[in-house]
Request: fold
Amino acid sequence: MTPFGEKLRALRAERGVSQKAMAEAIGVSAAYLSALEHGRRGAPTWTLIQKIIGYFNIIWDDAEDLARLAENSHPRVRIDTSGLSPAATELANLLAESIEKLDEAELRRLSASIRAALGRRI
Reply:
């Protein structure tokens, strides 16, 4: 499941909406919506994100947060380290080889550490 899929499922649950009803309302199939929630489909298009935001009547920061989650919910990530340092290539390969071995707490800690490192450079 992707972060976007997790949020989408939570929004549906909060409002008591079935996949079928939501899919019909936004013009997609229930199978597609299920695949999107489970991370078997890539990030949705900007147009579909806007339909979902409208469907749930999400405004301002919450709408931006949902769009950001969609942008960061590609289930198959490809990292091109050509032209980067050997350390960058090593990190990318280490993560690719071992991400499934990390628990949720470790994943959150690593994500926070990377975000903090990026924040120091802005």
The two ends are 30 Å apart (CA to CA). The chain is about 70% helix and 0% strand. The chain has a mean pLDDT of 92.
